[in-house]
Amino acid sequence: MSASSDGPTRAELTAAALAAGAGDQKALRTLLTATQGPVRRFCAHMVPGEDADDLTQETFLRAWRSLGGFRGDSSVTTWLLTIARRVCIEAVGRAARRPRANGFPATPNSQAMAPDPSAAQDLGDLINRLDPDRREAFVLTQIIGLSYAETAAVAETELGTVRSRVARARAQLLEWLASADDPGQKNPPATGTDPPVGPTNHP
Amino acid sequence: MGHESYPLSGTEDCADYRERMSCFLDGEGPDPGPPHEGCAACAAWTGPARLLQDAIRASAAGPEPDLSDRLLGAITASGPPGRPRGWHSRSTIGAAAGAAVAAIVLVGGATVLASHHARPAAQVSQVAGSSGQNPNYPGLVQSSAAYPEPDVTLTDTSNQPLNLAAVSRGHITLVYFGYTHCTDVCPTDMALDAAALSELPAPVAKDVQVVFVTADPNRDSPSVIRQWLDRFNSSFIGLTGPISVIHQAEAELDMPLSYAERGTSGNSSGDYQVVHAGYTLIFTPDGKAHLFYESTARPSQVAAALEKLAQRGFQVAS
Hints:
- The structure holds two protein chains of two kinds.
- Chain A is mainly α.
- Chain A is 60% helix and 0% strand.
- In chain A, helix 2 crosses helix 4 (76-96) and helix 8 (148-154) packs across helix 9.
- Chain B folds into two domains: 12-60, no CATH class; 115-311, Glutaredoxin (3-Layer(aba) Sandwich), CATH 3.40.30.
- Chain B is of the alpha+beta class.
- The longest helix of chain B has 15 residues, at 46-60.
- Chain B is globular and about 60 Å long.
- The interface between A and B is large, with 82 and 80 residues.
């Protein structure tokens, strides 16, 4: 499932999560080693202004506290990402002071200005400039490697919405990349569902 | 949901084509074929989209810092893990996929074997042996016993009484017990069913219905269930009722009886989890279930099983 596919299988991860809850330190380490990558990548893209390591740690601490509620479902990664998402929404809400009940608030760096693609350090930079909803669907499917159905579950939305968000994120990135190659057509206006947010104290 | 403006210039057809191509690139839909009316812009879109996908996959495989020691330290310092009350044993059963978690709990004064992710273990015939794969219905599990749909009357999301056995007759019915506040298997399983349905040919799909029975009637009112199910598919049927009736249905299906597990965080408000069975039963038009699947099944596997059932005149056995 994960982009790096050499780790434990889903069933092995499930077993590790359950054993870890029962006090098995070795299983806990296996679990952490195998799942920290997707969690950290997700956090890094969803809250670019904050330390991804801190968000990752907060996610795992919360997961640890609710390990008894983990239902032995094999998608440990999906369960962890659901928790990571809440951690990230709270973090963005703190920074932007615009919490939203059921999703990511728009962040200044995603909507307020049209990105200058030639100034982007790499693809990751460009991805972080996507509208948060589209970015979330794009990161979960393309970088974490979740299926659309799993993404819909994590993002608390419908399958059709995931399809459209991924496609639109893809199209947006291609447009930015194309304009970076063509100096005559720089800084296309960013478009999105959410209105641009005003200046905030976001770093 | 309204139409979002498309970042690229183009028509609605372009937006539609590129969405279908995007799904195809991700293995989530069929090849859309050549673009509408030979649209050159759309034809030129696919190549860069593929390159972008490759580049992102390559960058996602790059090195990441190893936080294991830091995380392990923080977790160890935070104390023991949260666990449900009444949890007497926690053992993985074998190394089988979807490892079940067994817990002995007291429900209504009777000791029952409950599980977070239970199968009707005694009745399951693992047709293909240890892997749990079923050669006739890959990804699904076949039960040697036929479970009749429980004859219980609950309330649907229009506040109308609805009998589970009656609604199942004459249709293929996917029945799932869960709760809308669930953060893992329930939304995954509903999304799985919605995806499976979307893969079915229309003539088969029209005979398939999905019934979600809440295991949390305390919070899941008809309108709450409706709103939640609409996120997946507005045709899904939602049922609620007294917990005693829901338990009766679960018991008849050899499912563990669901129960609320109050949080270990000392949260006394509405914040609690519900332990419930984590699998979906497939009832054939004769009102009996021989097959079930867990959230690990792929939509294509569920769709293939439903199509096969339809082709066989809903006879499960080969």
